[in-house]
Amino acid sequence: MLSPVRLQEVISKSLAPIQAIMEDRAVTEIMVTADGRVWVEKHGRIERSSIVLPEVDRQLALAAVAKHAGAEGGSHGRDLRSGTADAVVSTGVGGLRFAGALKGVDARGTTLAIRKHLEPEDRPTLNQLVEWQMLSEELAEKLVDLIIHQRLNCVFAGPTSGGKTTLANAILMHLPANERIGLIEDAREMALKVEHKNCYLAAPQSGLTAKVLVQHAMRERYDRLILSETRGDDTYDLLRALSSGHNGSVTTLHASSAAGALSTLELLFQMSLPEGVQMSPQSAQRYIAACINLVVFCSRSYVRQDDGTDKSYRRVSETAIVKGVSNGEYNLEHVHVQI
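The line above is the sequence of CpaF family protein; the predicted structure tokens follow.
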């Protein structure tokens, strides 16, 4: 079995043609389509570079990424196999988030998407997000009050690359120093500044799932739990933790609106119920409304610039307090809406 260091060397060598792009601190996303063309997101703009990454390099990089995921979790990782579930990979490696699919999923070739996470000292603050017009100063202060001071349990929702983790991280920079925080991630994305914290990294390939870590965290006397994203089997245990005194906890979720986030959470909750446990939709809704107090929905849109290019902008579109359920619908009190 190759060591994580050796696997990272293989990844770096395979991606040598795009090394300069990887090292550019202004680049946030690198996307390689099945024809090998390399697309780059920089300063909110997505543009095609002049580089074409050969198929063999893409396959080597993706195979090493798949192996590296297992090596970090103490297992042998997995081998890529075309035409099976093992033909796709999604994991974190050295501060990067990799997602890719082996040739055959797309008949033209292997695909890659690499998301770069800023170094902890470079993560944007709330003041910077206000300067970038993601939200107003008034709303920034309101969110700090609701989440940090009033300790409302919050879901940050939005599309991929919508800024939900960036905003959550900026707000969590205001955590008081006296609190004990438990952070659970499957890739290093958050950069909490409090000293009294434990940062758990899930390794699903070896069975160390977010669900296992949430269950463990409930025995560790944390004041708040931060789950970087709830995706499925961890949702039941997460909500159980939120209903047992971990006020002011935070998670993120993919959704298309604030109301949609709660509907998605409801679906994930029902899917994650322990075997033999059933809950009516009405009971599930009431339980979720009791556990989740606040939903912040972040959106991403493209605006045509004077030079003819399109630039993406991230905004806080909805901020809603969950007031309960009536007639099968969540009652949301919007404290902010931006169309």
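Note on the example: The longest helix spans residues 55-72. The chain has two domains: 4-116, 120-337.
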